[in-house]
Amino acid sequence: MTKNQGARRIVADNRKARHNYFVEEELETGIVLQGTEVKALRAGATNVTDAYAEVRGNEVYLLNMHIPVYEQGNRFNHDPLRPRKLLLHRREISRLLGATQRKGLTLIPLSLYFNDKGRAKVKLGLCKGKKLHDKRATEKDRDWAREKSRLMKENG
Fold first, then answer.
1. Where would you tag: which of 107, 112, 115, 141 has the fewest CB atoms within 10 A of its CB?
2. How many domains is the chain built from?
3. What is the largest CA-CA distance in the chain?
């Protein structure tokens, strides 16, 4: 990345998350990675679709995120599915712990990207699961909005 680029570079986006969950809150977190994981992410191949975050003690871990093995990493390569620690403040962790235990919410990674300083970040969503009728209603609203904008464009 160059200095004048200034924008973040998205590595992985979890599009299914907004379809399957109501995202009530979003927060940006850092992630602890090993050297070959960073190189594999910069190569652009990762999967966050099935990933979720879990509070263990006083720490938050991202589970089930697949970062493939880096080809030139030889014996120093990483485990593709290892739990990865997320970097949050203690107050944020206790608030997330309360929300997941009391309200039954889930922590889902929405996207994984490199910020303008070149650091890997995870956009984490505090989500509530959608039922089948909620998914249908969301799709119906989206289709109606698309149809409405098409009609407005045609009629002036």
1. 141
2. 1
3. 64
